[in-house]
Amino acid sequence: MSGLALNNVTKEFGTFTAVNNVDLTVPHGTFVCMLGPSGCGKTTLLRMIAGLDLPTGGAIRLDGDDITRVPTHKRNLGMVFQSLALFPHLTVGENIAYPLRIRSAPKEDQKKRVDELLSMIHLAGYADRPVSKLSGGQRQRVAIARALSISPKLFLLDEPLSALDAKLREAMQVELRQLQQKLGITTIVVTHDQREAMTMADTVVVMNRGEIRQAASPIEIYRRPADTFVADFIGSTNLLEAETDSAGRVTVLGQPVAGISLGPNISKATLSVRPEDVHLTAPGDGALSGTVTFVRDLGGTIETFVDVAGRQIIAVSTPRARPDVSVGQPVGVVLLPDVCVVLAK
Amino acid sequence: MRRETPQRLADYGPLFFPAMMLVVFFVVPFATMIAVSFFQRQQGGFYVPAFELSNYQRFISLFFANVLGFSLMLAIAVAICCVVLAIPFTYLLTRMARKVQIIWLVALLSVLSLSEVIIGFAWSTLFSRTAGITNLLVMAGLMSEAKALLPSFGAVLTGMVYQAFPYTVLVLYPALVRLDPTLTEAARTLGASPIKAFFTVVVPALRNTITATLIMVFIFALGSYLLPQLLGRPQHWTLSVLITDQAIYQSNMPFAAAMAVFLVLVTLGLVALTVMAGRKGEAA
What we know:
The complex is a heterodimer of chains A (345) and B (284).
Chain A: E1 3-13, E2 16-27, E3 31-35, H1 42-50, E4 57-62, E5 65-66, E6 77-80, H2 92-102, H3 107-120, H4 136-148, E7 154-158, H5 166-183, E8 186-191, H6 194-200, E9 203-208, E10 211-216, H7 218-223, H8 228-233, E11 238-244, E12 250-252, E13 255-256, E14 268-273, E15 279-281, E16 288-297, E17 302-308, E18 311-317, E19 330-334, E20 341-344
Parallel strand pairs in A: 3-8, 3-9, 6-7, 7-8
Antiparallel strand pairs in A: 1-2, 1-4, 4-5, 9-10, 11-12, 11-14, 12-13, 14-20, 15-19, 16-17, 16-19, 17-18
Helix pairs in contact in A: 2-3, 2-4, 3-4
Chain B: H1 13-36, E1 40-41, E2 47-48, H2 54-59, H3 62-94, H4 98-112, H5 116-126, H6 134-139, H7 153-178, H8 181-189, H9 194-205, H10 207-222, H11 227-231, H12 239-249, H13 253-283
Antiparallel strand pairs in B: 1-2
Helix pairs in contact in B: 3-7, 3-10, 4-7, 5-7, 7-10, 8-9, 10-13, 12-13
């Protein structure tokens, strides 16, 4: 099979399990983002794929070959570190040529490839500059070019954009995605920034406590989160307790709602509703009744905080659909069945 | 941060104390030595103020040129041996657990507390025929009979490297601790084996530190005068040995001072050359 496959990969540090039985298949040419809070094991997993850490269990296969114990330098990868790790004693061109020099490529080929990569990252003519004279964004590009100079089988990036300011980061996300699509290279990025993952990835892998909670396309993750952790970690959401009473009616926060089913034989569950899917109406039938406690008008979006039976529900709307409410006013909260995700308790 | 240039005399106040220390403990003794090197020696004891170049003239001979050449060569050899041994050692040390590092550093510091005399006699025992390390090799069946390894050039070199090694490690240690460990990891992901990564990344990234360490050990080794006498033959005696001999046993202070001044000048010249070569390498 072409691509990367992880089978039951486990990493234990003493009694602490950093990565627990991870199974993941990354088809050739896809862009995967590993997303999770700090300490969730995503960086350890990436380091095992790179060979910088050895798994204590399981196997890693690349294009069908078992590479679990192959030393890092024989894996033919390209990796970008969080610190970038550009070599301070080499110029921009020498940094990019480093993987070629190590493999004793002819000097002319090295030079040709460096020029090619420099124009790809929009830094043509920078070959002879010392890396210390570059800006943050330029260093970032040099680190990417260096990792790509041998056309690696795998392109790994560990929090690559975290050192950049917000604007540059957004621009680099788009650039990185376009570059990956142009080269068609299998890419794995570790990040804790969900916007970054949503922007770039074909597949988002959400991790927590050393385990994969969900691996799916960004929109699937957002629309159909597998559990409350994923629903809460990706974007913001309202998590509401729902119950089926003895008569078979579904209640949310103790109030009956129509049209929602928790599934057969489930009496208790959690509903996840994105704030932009919450509609506010006049209090009445079929809607949860609540009271507006706060309105945050951000210009581009308006967030309305509604208190329903002691729980806060947030509704987000655009200025065009501005709800006509004010603080202290009773409102009805409509939960449409097709946007509510039922998550097992 | 930009600092204002001092306006009034009082602004130089903080410099007063270090300047005084430098004058009292360095400039005055050094100036005295330069002055004495031009004085005239009185037969059978002391010297009287004068201005004559005979001390320097006497120095210009094939014999002293040979001694000077050997002294410089020995100091360079010690510096190179120390740095070549200490870089991998310190590199591995910085990658150990903190506790292990502390134990090693304390052990190295304890070597510094040994006087040159003790080091010299310890090595002369170790290199001797009757109680030396060759007896162990005989016991292990690697040698047919024990033999003395001293006096010899190898013994002098070993003793001096042993003495200078802790200094070398202590000078290299901070730079190697500060070296970003992801640099070697990056080199490995880019296709360099750990050994190749060490030589293509760690060593070049530390070039300035290595030059500074070489100079430091070189100067340190140049001043050694006991070990060459304890472990070497007369042809292994350095200029420092001759200076001691002239100053203490022959009571010829002016000549000893002249040799010392000459040694300082040659040393400064070599250090300047090294620094200039380093600058050129940087610009290229």
